[in-house]
Automatic annotation (TrEMBL):
Belongs to the RqcP family. This is RQC P-site tRNA stabilizing factor. Associates with stalled 50S ribosomal subunits. Binds to RqcH, 23S rRNA and the P-site tRNA. Does not require RqcH for association with 50S subunits. One of its GO terms (biological process) is rescue of stalled ribosome. CDD domains: S4. PROSITE patterns: S4. Residues 1-64 form the RNA-binding S4 domain.
Amino acid sequence: MRLDKFLKVSRIIKRRSVAKEVADKGRIQINGKLAKSSSTLKVGDVLCIQFGNKRLEVKVTELKDSTKKEDATQMYEILSEEKIRLEDLKE
Protein backbone atom coordinates (compact mmCIF):
# COMPACT_ATOMS: atom_id res chain seq x y z
CA MET A 1 0.00 0.00 0.00
CA ARG A 2 1.22 3.52 -0.79
CA LEU A 3 2.42 5.59 2.16
CA ASP A 4 0.02 8.50 1.54
CA LYS A 5 -2.98 6.16 1.33
CA PHE A 6 -1.98 4.36 4.54
CA LEU A 7 -1.70 7.65 6.43
CA LYS A 8 -5.18 8.68 5.26
CA VAL A 9 -6.93 5.32 5.81
CA SER A 10 -5.34 4.92 9.27
CA ARG A 11 -6.34 8.52 10.04
CA ILE A 12 -2.84 9.47 11.20
CA ILE A 13 -3.20 12.33 8.71
CA LYS A 14 -6.73 13.37 7.76
CA ARG A 15 -6.31 14.01 4.01
CA ARG A 16 -4.25 12.20 1.41
CA SER A 17 -3.10 15.47 -0.16
CA VAL A 18 -1.68 16.58 3.20
CA ALA A 19 0.00 13.18 3.67
CA LYS A 20 1.58 13.53 0.22
CA GLU A 21 2.84 17.03 1.02
CA VAL A 22 4.36 15.96 4.37
CA ALA A 23 6.11 12.97 2.76
CA ASP A 24 7.41 14.95 -0.20
CA LYS A 25 8.93 17.55 2.15
CA GLY A 26 11.12 14.82 3.68
CA ARG A 27 9.34 14.59 7.03
CA ILE A 28 8.62 10.86 6.96
CA GLN A 29 11.00 7.93 7.24
CA ILE A 30 10.26 4.24 6.71
CA ASN A 31 12.62 1.97 8.65
CA GLY A 32 15.10 4.84 8.98
CA LYS A 33 15.12 5.80 5.29
CA LEU A 34 13.59 8.94 3.80
CA ALA A 35 10.22 8.14 2.20
CA LYS A 36 8.17 9.59 -0.64
CA SER A 37 4.38 9.58 -0.79
CA SER A 38 4.49 6.74 -3.33
CA SER A 39 6.69 4.50 -1.13
CA THR A 40 5.25 1.03 -0.54
CA LEU A 41 4.47 -0.06 3.02
CA LYS A 42 4.46 -3.58 4.42
CA VAL A 43 3.22 -4.94 7.74
CA GLY A 44 6.04 -4.52 10.27
CA ASP A 45 7.46 -1.30 8.79
CA VAL A 46 8.28 1.48 11.27
CA LEU A 47 7.32 5.02 10.31
CA CYS A 48 8.81 8.15 11.85
CA ILE A 49 6.64 11.18 11.06
CA GLN A 50 7.42 14.78 11.95
CA PHE A 51 4.42 17.13 12.18
CA GLY A 52 5.48 20.65 13.06
CA ASN A 53 6.60 20.35 16.69
CA LYS A 54 5.72 16.65 17.17
CA ARG A 55 7.51 13.43 16.20
CA LEU A 56 5.46 10.25 15.99
CA GLU A 57 6.89 6.76 15.56
CA VAL A 58 4.46 3.97 14.63
CA LYS A 59 4.68 0.34 13.55
CA VAL A 60 2.39 -0.84 10.74
CA THR A 61 0.27 -3.76 12.02
CA GLU A 62 -2.39 -4.05 9.29
CA LEU A 63 -3.00 -2.83 5.75
CA LYS A 64 -6.63 -2.19 4.75
CA ASP A 65 -8.06 -0.32 1.76
CA SER A 66 -10.72 1.31 3.92
CA THR A 67 -11.72 1.35 7.58
CA LYS A 68 -14.33 2.65 9.93
CA LYS A 69 -13.14 5.34 12.30
CA GLU A 70 -13.10 3.00 15.29
CA ASP A 71 -11.02 0.37 13.41
CA ALA A 72 -8.39 2.78 12.07
CA THR A 73 -6.18 2.61 15.17
CA GLN A 74 -5.79 -1.17 14.69
CA MET A 75 -3.69 -0.48 11.58
CA TYR A 76 -0.74 0.77 13.62
CA GLU A 77 0.91 0.64 17.03
CA ILE A 78 2.37 3.83 18.51
CA LEU A 79 6.00 3.22 19.51
CA SER A 80 6.78 6.78 20.65
CA GLU A 81 5.37 10.27 20.54
CA GLU A 82 7.35 13.32 21.55
CA LYS A 83 7.22 17.09 21.39
CA ILE A 84 10.18 18.72 19.65
CA ARG A 85 11.67 21.99 20.81
CA LEU A 86 12.04 24.70 18.19
CA GLU A 87 15.82 24.74 18.70
CA ASP A 88 16.05 21.04 17.75
CA LEU A 89 14.27 21.68 14.44
CA LYS A 90 16.86 24.24 13.30
CA GLU A 91 19.76 21.75 13.58
